[in-house]
Please model this.
Amino acid sequence: MTETLPRAGAGDPVVGRPIDRVDGPAKTTGAAVYSAEVAYPDLAYATLVPATISRGRITSIDTAAATAVRGVITVLTHENAPELKPPQPFNPFNFATFAAGTQVNYLKTDEIFWDGQPVALVVAETLEAAHEAAALVRVAYEERPSAVDFAAEEGNAQPQKANMVLPSGAKKGDAEAAFAASPVKVDLRFTTPPHNHNAIEPHATTAVWDGNRLTVHDSTQSIDWLRTHLALRFDVQPANVRVVSTYVGGGFGGKSVVWAGTILTALAARAIDRPVRMMLTREAVYHTVGARGAATQRVALGAGEDGRLTSLIHTTVARTSRVGGLPETLTSPSRHLYATPTMLLQQHLVEMDLIPPSPMRTPSEGIGSFALESAIDELAYQVGMDPIRFRMLNEPATNPVDGKAFSRRWLPEAYALGAEQFGWSERTPEPGSMRDGRWLVGMGVATAFHPAQQMAANVTVRLSVDGSVVVRCAFQEIGVGAATVQAQIAADALGVPFENVRVEYGDSDLPSSAAAIGSVQTATVANSLLEGCEKLKKRLRSLARRHGTTGQSHGETLARAGLPSLEVAIGSDTRVGKVTGQVKFFTRFLREQRRWMKAAYGAHFCEVRIDQDTGEVRVARWTGVFDFGRVINTKTATSQLRGGIIAGIGMALGEETLVDPRNGRIMNPSLAEYHLPVQADIPQIEVMCLDEPDPTMPLGLTGIGEVGPTGVAAAIANAVHHATGKRIRDLPLTLDKLL
Amino acid sequence: MGLTPSTASSVISLHINGEKHQLCVDHRTSLLDVLRENVGLTGTKKGCDQGACGACTVLLDGVRINSCLALAVQYDDREITTIEGVDHPLQEAFVRHDGFQCGYCTPGQICSAIGMLAEHKGGAPSAATEHLSESDGELSDAEIRERMSGNLCRCGAYNGIVAAIGEVAR
Amino acid sequence: MKSFSYVAVSDVEDAVRAIAAEPNAKFLGGGTNLVDLMRENVERPDVLVDITRLPLNGIEELPDSGIRIGALVRNSELAAHPVIRTRYPMLSQAILHGASAQLRNMATVGGNLMQRTRCLYFYDSASPCNKREQGSGCTAIGGFTRGHAILGASEHCIATHPSDMAVALVALDAVVEVRSEHGTRRIPLADFHRLPGSTPHIETELAPDELITAVEVPGVPVAAMSRYRKVRDRASYAFALVSVAAAMEVRDGRVSAVRLALGGVAPKPWRAHEAEEALLGAPATEESFGRAADAALASAVGQGDNDFKIDLARRTLVATLRRLLTEGSAA
Model:
């Protein structure tokens, strides 16, 4: 199952080893500089003023008291804000249009589309003055009736329209008829609340104009999209916009598209012709950054007496807004996980007067898998079969929705290994049958799944006569260990020691990278990097032939050729180069889409303990076995998967954004009242990786950022059922639901 | 200081990482903002400004506190240690055990852990302590988890943090 | 946050004089709650009188085997004190279950008593709130009430008091010593916090010109046999849904002494006298514990979201007594 990689020379291979992060020393000494920490002379501070109604119009806005606060430079509103172009509508052929979080042109409209929409921006000499003044801006509104209560609006949902990137449904045979005729069945409704990303670093921007040139230091997941988007909004050439984003303090989807903070900081800097910084308050993150909306799902499964699925129905309702928002593909897991002769999948959307939703780790499969993997467990109990055996019985040979071949799928192996490691055989299947003192003990499993994709990235690779290598690519270090793993890949591809490779990143002046979203970045950059290394080696071989240094070191070849260094480029960031890259990417994307079903998979095993008196749920043990292709760095990969599982535990047990159904106002915009998991919630998490390369992916790797959280909530809910006999189909799984 | 309140701002001295800083601070300015915006020590992070995440943890005379809820004016003449002034085996242990991903909560985690180790050494109990009358309990993983629960990590590096602290403590 | 004047005082006389001189002045201790609320524009003082340098940071044993705790003793220091850990373990536990270690290192004993509710609508200055602005209405009623009161609420306010420490203290008959220019007075903690009634903006009996100087806890032998149990939405660093401070002594199978209080369920730390009465002299059995819990919650009313807390409080009370019986004290 292992594949031999071409190696161009000496040096121990480093791919697959637990290499320490190259950014470790900077991050543990405080030397790592984030976007709100760049020093500029004459810096001003900005802060936002949020709307306090969910729909209507500003009738008057009084900034006199705010402007009078000592230290205030200006207060921008729709009455005086400088020119700002509206966002372009979504166009799948222009990824820059993805980047608009909303269609609202901030401070260029008097219309309010959600509670929290910025209605003014205060710019001041100090943070204190800015915040004091923001509280003094007086806004009068003409309110209109608004749709903010998801439970009340659910019935108005319309079938979601498909586009070439996001399918919205699927039909195979007559699933309803097959369901009706099935001897064993479950028909279940699941509900999930809104969630917020809550990266610990709030969105932060430092913006500086020099004439018509804009530099922004921004905590973004997508340097290239942000750059093109800002160029569009401020009506300047993309070449005149520079985005610097070296370290990003977490994103989880919340920094994948462009929201008000970034745009309005740049607008403020233009208005006062000085450098301006804005770090959103935690409240403003909730108010101005779209996140996950509430959803309901129906999963109806039918099976024969033998336990084979006869019908799979999965329909969903989620929300969008009147001003944009990317819907999730909640039915995604149902397209790919189980063999079934009939299938009916349909997603529905309802427009609401709330901030546009945006992807959150893990978009689509995070929520979708909670419903499907809970329902599968329920059906397994109906059939009277062990839930792992039930899954293996229904394991498909080809992709269930369309019969495509799997590029690779070792899910049964993951379950087998996990069951052994976790001690699944010690589980007695009867609900409520396992106890330890005052604790009710339950064990549950669920499948993790996330489709693998690649996007486009440009890189340069330069080898110097001293044997050092510089890789340049405009990705950011958001915590995935990007610079570390790409250096490992380059070291092995060029046959040089890991220490010789330096990666330059985090600046749009570098060749453009794919965004850190949807688990695409590592494979995408690796693909271009490998291509670059091959190209470089080809040129080195030809130089070596010409100068008689074949078999000697790269450095020797360069020295003999009289070259201080040799650099190759993959892709180009010229206007033509980008269009060519986009076309090339789409051609490959569509071809690959037709041929293969590629994904990362995993098997989650968990043990929960529930206090018999209070219903408190504690996750006591966790084993996750993953099949995501080749492991580049066992240390960072394990961390990322653990982190994903912890995100899933948060979603399962505590996380919920409270949107008041009376007025659409978020009532817990706070890390004290939105319950992320804390240290004490998290046990030791065992992660194992099968390390089977994917033959269709560069170096055999797929992404791992998104697969971890999928299935986690279902595994916990299944374990809770095992412990208590209660099925909780409504997240979060708080103790009141178990009393 | 006399009894007459000084308006709006005051001059204070802060000893930060062994260096004395004379500063004129707006009374509203938190210790966190003084460090980040006035002194240029940006290693201490702002995560919530609500006392709810621990990213801003610094050591005040060796004791861990949340600098976001500390008004700088209150800390005249006090000794502050930030991540920039830390030289501790925990830092290397955090790297080796991968006790971080994005790195944003890390300075707070490390300062918090240093304060926590001192608290434990001084016999302070925690909510995880089984018998409060005993003051020499071992620093088990469960104790570390409870004592470090004031430092959120959204990337989910909790296991690595416990491993790094456990290794240094034992 | 609006601009304010600041003065640091070094003796108690100066502190009470400074506060009396300014109509809109506030004492500043650890700042963990006040600074947060000022940032939210909920608190808007003109003057802050910094009292952290006052000599009120001692913990002294009293002749009646009680203890006197200076108002500026940090929460962490009190929790770690050997006398508290052995004679009043539920107090130590209560403190250790509140907030985080960093906050406990900052927060003072006096400040803990003065902390204000975590009601989501109180914190949101765009929502009408009778506590913030008398007569403006209560937005919490009909809203998200998971954290709200089931005991002692009124039609004007359903907020809970967030302290853990105060729950243990009220079970111990603690007394709050306060000082003003007019002298010293002692207020039993049980009377210190007010129920909202029609004046939810007045939260305590403390006059605006009074300073908490100390909290005294009498000798309570049964307190050595005590536990604090907090139930919350995550394993640490969250406010209580329900908490129970319980001390119980059993002789010959019967309850010979008992102290019970509830947290997270009422606008004030809630002494469960009815439950104590039901339990005293009764056999130490599950049935007696259940009857005591029923007595404690006889007048409980839910708001919808928080209905479960009635059952939860009952179960937690019974479980805590059971654990005291089977496993003994937390000391």
Observations:
- Chain C has a mean pLDDT of 97.
- Chain C touches chain B through 48 residues (CB under 8 Å).
- Residues 223-325 of chain C form a domain with the Enolase-like; domain 1 fold (CATH 3.30.390.50).
